[in-house]
Amino acid sequence: MPARRISEEPAYVLHRYDWSESSLILDVFTRHHGRVALVAKGAKKPTSNFRPVLLPLQPLRVGYTASGGEGQGEVHVLKGAEWVGGHVMPTGDALMSGLYLNELLMRLLAREDAHPPLFDAYAGVVRVLGSGEHGDALEPVLRSFELLLLREIGLLPALDAETMTLAPLQPAARYALVPEAGLRPAQPADRATLPGAQWLALHHALESGGPGSYTTTLRAIASSVDAPMTSDLKPQLRTLLQYHCGSPLLRTRQLMIDLQLL
Question: Of 106, 143, 144, 210, which one is least surrounded by beta carbons within 10 A?
């Protein structure tokens, strides 16, 4: 199959690897083609136009040559990259949060599998991280994206019923989201649970945007997640995500744990 030229594709760099003394391999999240691997030839040279552009958490438009079709093992050749602008690089906790989201996408998304609504939601989260004005909104936005990611790839059970019995949730009863059983009634050993009313609120927020759009959904979930809910929702989502990511522990999570021990 002849090579295809992809032009003006919205994209974000998730990660970059040294390929040679002068070149890089990029893991890139694109809107219409999903997660792709690109080789940026000569990108490490001081005179390269790629050098100041190929940074994580920055909105780009890229062009590349798709070599011989699409497939899990394909590495395509980057031909152009342009910074779209709009916000600066996140710093501090926002930077660590962005790198954490990037690692989730690399571990959970298959290559060449497009998720345009998820891309739009990710772009919205990155704008929040880069605004410098996220404040208390950081945790709700992260939890919202985790829920959207799990739902998009089919790993989030329905949040309006018990997973095993399909019994409707009781608003006053407490339930836990666990990897192998989905949403089930709380047990004494559970470290974190939420009342049925809060799971139902998250379910309705997830349904609010309609098919094909997560922009409205992201805002709806974030607005429904308050500080007390976040403290109980976070460990449940993190456990579920790590279960599906497999071993080893997410590098960004390990780094945050190590920093807290200093």
Answer: 210
d(CA 231, CA 193): 10
* Rounded Cα gap, residues 94 and 87, in angstroms: 13
Tokens of 239: 């456990």
Query: What pLDDT does 173 receive?
Result: 98
> Residue 259 is encoded by which pair of tokens?
């920093």
Q: Tell me what percent of the chain is helix, strand and coil, each rounded to the nearest 5.
A: 40, 25, 40
Contact between 58 and 129 under an 8 Å Cβ cutoff? The reply is no
Rounded Cα gap, residues 225 and 201, in angstroms: 9
Res. 32: pLDDT tops 90: yes
The mean predicted confidence, pLDDT, of the chain is 89
Contact by Cβ (8 Å): 15, 102: yes
CA angle 261, 250, 66 (to 5 degrees): 145
β pairing state of 174-178 and 182-185: antiparallel
H helix or E strand, kind and range, residue 65: strand 60-66
Closest CA relative to residue 194, chosen from 156, 153, 155, 226: 226
Q: What is the pLDDT of residues 211-253, one digit of tens each?
A: 557 778 888 888 888 777 888 999 999 999 999 998 888 888 7
